Amino acid sequence: MCEIARLPKSSKLPTARIAIDIRPTAGNVERVREIYSSDFFVDRDMLGLVQLKSKMNMRSSESRTVYVAQSLTVNANTWKEGGEVSFVTESHNVPGQGEPIKYGLNCHIGSHVEAKVVNAGLDGYAWPLDCKRLNGDIAKGYYIEALGFFITTHEDSKDFGVSDTTVDSVTIER
To answer: Is the distance from CB of 103 to CB of 76 less than 8 angstroms?
Structure first.
């Protein structure tokens, strides 16, 4: 298990600490819980960069919005500096009803660096990724090999503005 504390500074959203708990499962899927406040958190099943399932949880509400990837398209060449990886998922809030929700990234891979560049508590290597979402938004960050997780450090979003995130702390239980 790994816990990461992130502090995003956004041009449109209030600054608030986000805790991320990462729990590996069988089959290389990571269970990720992003805790935004005591009343709101998101559970995700991730396979590297790809979100397979997400569930939004609000303690003050009975509704739990769940998205499950119904299809996945991946394009990738060799994972190396200068390489590119992209994917698109389609999911439905309620399977079989309404238009599918598409999500995807097209990422350019930079030269690997020591993960300590992201935070001193991280071991191994990190790969800088410069990504563009399907809607044109920008996401930059590092894919941490040892965690199998992409930590976003910069976002430029039409809806949420520009935000830069630092990793305040990392706690790893072995």
So the answer is: no
Q: Please spell the DSSP secondary structure of 48-117, one letter per residue.
A: TTEEEEEEEEETT-S-EEEEEEEEEEEEE--SSTT-EEEEEEEEESSTTSSPPEEEEEEEEE---EEGGG
* Residue reference for tokens 């999500």: 103
pLDDT digits (tens, 9 = 90+) for 146-159: 888 899 999 998 88
For residues 69 and 136, which has the higher predicted lDDT (pLDDT)? Answer: 136
Question: Beta partners for 36?
Answer: none
Closest C-alpha among 53, 55, 51 to residue 88: 51
* pLDDT tens track for 158-167: 888 888 888 8
User: Where do the domains of the chain lie?
Assistant: 2-172
Q: How many residues does the chain have?
A: 174
